[in-house]
Structures are given as structure tokens and as C-alpha cells.
């Protein structure tokens, strides 16, 4: 039997609840399709930090490099500053493995209500630049005669912009043929005009894609007022981050929003993790929505070359969301993580 080696990093908070839940679903789907997932359980995160003073062991990246994919829950917990926990685990993985595309689909699943009163069709793919941009360690804090100053530089390389924009335009070509690029060239005088210039160059090679740029503030509003107009949205690291939470909210909850951190060259393992975080406000109570993590699992199966198994998992998710009695609290229901997970397993199409 063909077994894929998968690193499982539950991380912190609800990551420890939704990741094992999704593993159950994936194991079941895999066995029905004649393959297996060999999980390498890695207890890295804020508890590991408390014991060892680092978020992962020194050879952590090397160990992940030996896997076929990384399945991650969430990172971050009160007591460890967020910039320490995230720059100690999640962000180094994205960078070490050249996962320059963060693909974040969002759509209205059957049975889910958008908080928007008028929300007809909503089916977007956010392509977020994932290894540079506003997320940088360049800068610092300085004491000056005029008072303390903090400086945070953004780094946009031509190669970094070009490759993610090319991915987004290719995706738009394969989907509805429409793309919006998030900019802010009215306020950011160096990076965003550069991003816009590279966007126009890449667009020239995709004459079949209808595209426009929008300032990110107006685009955020557009998600609320005309969600049906959007198809592929591409943005820098920070803009894509913020817009993906907006998209998740439009689709009903952060609890149903997946993401895939992809190295499209295939040279390194890609990483699959929900858009949401560790949700300290609900962690430990067994009420977290496992759908985002399970959907991430479907994206991982697809990536590993099992589109039929991935489609089964998505079909099972849709059968569960269609049933209000199976909704978790974030969706207005009363189901627990365990009930929603078991329902997804029960809803897997028979093989
Ligand atoms: P969050 O996404 O953890 O939570 C925001 C809100 O959404 C909370 O009210 C939470 O209860 C709710 N929510 C999130 N996921 C849910 C789910 N599956 N089911 C039901 N409700 C859900 O964002 P935050 O509060 O800003 O961050 C908490 C911690 O997580 C911080 O340490 C942050 O840095 C970290 N974080 C990590 C990741 C990641 O690892 N990829 C992503 C985002 C935030
Ligand atoms: C996400 C998260 C992370 C990000 C944080 C926790 C660093 O918000 O994956 O969306 O901004 O990339
Ligand atoms: Mn985010």
C-alpha cells in the first residue's frame, strides 16, 4: 500500500482538538481509496517552548523536509508573545520550504448563512504572497532625541512578486477568468507601485484574464457589498492575510476557512493549516469547528495526488454543513467538535 509520510503538528489551543479530528476523517477517506497516511506526530508549539525555550527542536526543519506534506493546527498561546511563537514555528516553515503561495478558498457551503443579508453567489480564491512583503524582520526599535521609534521594513522582490502573481493569473485562467489585485499605491509609495508594475507585466502574458487593481481598503468593502463579483483575489502577505479573514467571515465563520501553503515547484513539502488561530477563548471545551481543518485535509489529499478522496471529503463536509443539527456553535448550532467530526466520517460516500 502506498503510504504518504505526513508531519502532524497540532500546535496550540484548538489546534490540539481540530487536528486529531481531521486526521480521523483523512485516515478513513484514505483507507477507502486504497492508500494510507503515515503520521509523524510532532508536539511542537507553546508547551514545547515552555519546556525547551524554542518552538521546535534545532533539527525541526530538517525533519519536516523528509515528509511529503505538513498538516498543522494552530500556533500561539497566551504567555508566549505572538511574534516569538509564530516566528519560531509557522513562519520559518513557510520560508524554509519556499511556500510562496498561500491559497485560501472561501465559498458559501450548503446550509451556511453568511452574516451578509444579501449574499448570493460567493466563491473566491485568495492567493496570498507568503514569504516576503510586509512580514519581515528588517527594522528595529531606536531611541532618538525625539522619543522612541519602531521601524518595520517591507521587502518586495521582483522574483517574489512575479511568481505569486503568475500563480494567481494562471489560477484565474483555470477558474472564472477574473482577477483583482489588492494594492495601496496611494499610501505606500515604493512597494505598491512596484507590485502594480509587476502585476501589469504578468497580466500581459494572460490576455484572457479580465483583471483590475483595487485599493485594499475599497476591496475589503467590496467583499461586503458585492461578494458575488469576486473570483481570484491576489495580494501581498499582509493584505492577503486580512482579506482572508474577511472572506472567511463572509462565508459564515473562521471555523470553515482552509488554507494551503504551497511550494508550487514541488521541491519541498507544502503545509496545510486553517486560516484561523488557536482560539484561546474556546480552547479545551470541545466546541471548536473542525470543518476548516478537515477541508485543509481535503486540499492536502488533492495535493498528494488523490483527487477522488479529496472530493469525497468535501462532499462529506457539504452533507454536514447542510444539516443545521450538525453545526458547531460558531455557526449558531450546538454540535461539539466530536459530533461534527463523526458526522463527517459517517457522511463519507460509500466506496
Ligand atoms: P483566532 O482565529 O484564533 O480566533 C478568532 C475568533 O474566531 C475567536 O473568537 C475564536 O473563538 C473564533 N474561531 C477561530 N477558529 C474557530 C473554530 N475552528 N471554531 C470556532 N470558532 C473559531 O484568532 P486570534 O484570537 O487573533 O488568535 C489567537 C492566537 O492564534 C494568537 O496567538 C494568534 O497569533 C494565533 N494565530 C495563529 C494562526 C496560525 O497558526 N495559522 C492563525 C491565526 C492566529
Ligand atoms: C495566518 C495567521 C498568521 C499570518 C499569523 C499568526 C502570523 O494570521 O496564517 O493567517 O499572519 O500569516
Ligand atoms: Mn491570518
Structure description:
It is built from twelve helices and twelve strands. The strands form two sheets. The chain has a ten-stranded mixed sheet, sandwiched between helices. A two-stranded antiparallel ribbon has the order 6-7. Helices cover about 40% and strands about 20% of the residues. It is α/β, with parallel strands linked by helices and about 350 residues long. It has two domains: about 200 residues, Isopropylmalate Dehydrogenase (3-Layer(aba) Sandwich), CATH 3.40.718; about 140 residues, Isopropylmalate Dehydrogenase. It binds nicotinamide-adenine-dinucleotide, 3-isopropylmalic acid (IPM) and manganese (II) ion (MN). The site of 3-isopropylmalic acid (IPM) has 5 residues, from loops.
What labels describe this entry?
Isopropylmalate Dehydrogenase; two-stranded antiparallel ribbon; binds 3-isopropylmalic acid; binds manganese (II) ion; alpha/beta; binds nicotinamide-adenine-dinucleotide; 351 residues
Spans of at least 5 consecutive residues with low confidence: none
Structural class: alpha/beta
Major sheet summary line: 10 strands, mixed
CATH superfamily of the largest domain: Isopropylmalate Dehydrogenase
Amino acid at each position: 500500500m502506498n503510504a504518504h509520510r505526513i508531519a502532524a503538528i497540532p500546535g496550540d489551543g484548538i489546534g490540539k482538538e481540530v487536528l486529531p479530528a481531521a486526521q480521523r476523517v483523512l485516515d478513513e477517506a484514505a483507507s477507502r481509496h486504497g492508500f494510507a497516511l503515515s503520521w509523524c506526530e510532532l508536539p511542537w508549539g507553546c508547551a514545547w517552548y515552555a519546556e525547551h525555550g524554542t518552538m521546535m527542536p534545532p533539527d525541526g526543519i530538517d525533519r519536516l523536509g523528509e515528509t511529503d506534506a505538513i498538516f498543522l493546527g494552530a500556533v500561539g498561546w497566551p504567555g508566549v508573545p505572538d511574534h516569538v511563537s509564530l516566528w519560531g514555528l509557522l513562519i520559518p516553515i513557510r520560508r524554509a520550504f519556499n511556500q510562496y503561495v498561500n491559497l485560501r478558498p472561501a465559498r458559501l457551503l450548503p446550509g451556511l448563512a453568511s452574516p451578509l443579508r444579501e449574499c448570493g453567489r460567493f466563491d473566491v480564491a485568495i492567493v496570498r504572497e507568503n514569504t516576503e512583503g510586509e512580514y519581515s524582520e528588517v527594522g528595529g526599535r531606536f531611541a532618538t532625541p525625539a522619543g522612541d521609534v519602531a521601524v518595520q521594513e517591507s521587502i518586495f522582490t521582483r522574483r517574489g512578486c512575479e511568481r505569486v502573481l503568475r500563480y494567481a493569473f494562471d489560477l484565474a485562467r483555470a477558474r472564472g477568468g477574473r482577477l483583482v489585485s489588492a494594492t495601496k499605491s496611494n499610501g505606500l509609495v515604493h512597494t505598491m507601485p512596484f507590485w502594480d508594475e509587476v502585476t501589469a507585466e504578468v497580466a500581459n502574458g494572460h490576455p484572457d484574464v479580465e483583471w483590475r487593481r483595487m485599493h485594499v481598503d475599497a476591496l475589503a468593502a467590496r467583499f461586503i457589498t458585492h461578494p458575488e463579483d469576486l473570483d481570484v483575489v491576489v495580494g501581498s502577505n499582509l493584505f492577503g492575510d486580512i482579506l482572508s479573514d474577511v472572506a472567511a467571515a463572509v462565508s459564515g465563520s473562521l471555523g470553515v476557512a482552509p488554507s494551503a501553503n504551497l511550494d508550487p515547484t514541488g521541491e519541498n513539502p507544502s503545509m496545510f493549516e486553517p486560516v484561523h488561530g488557536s482560539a484561546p477563548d474556546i480552547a479545551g471545551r470541545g466546541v471548536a469547528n473542525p470543518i476548516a481543518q478537515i477541508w485543509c485535509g481535503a486540499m492536502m489529499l488533492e495535493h498528494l495526488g488523490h483527487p477522488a478522496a479529496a472530493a469525497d471529503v468535501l462532499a462529506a463536509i457539504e452533507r454536514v454543513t447542510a444539516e443545521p443539527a450538525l453545526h458547531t456553535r460558531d455557526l449558531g448550532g450546538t454540535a461539539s467538535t466530536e459530533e461534527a467530526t463523526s458526522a463527517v466520517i459517517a457522511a463519507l460516500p460509500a466506496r
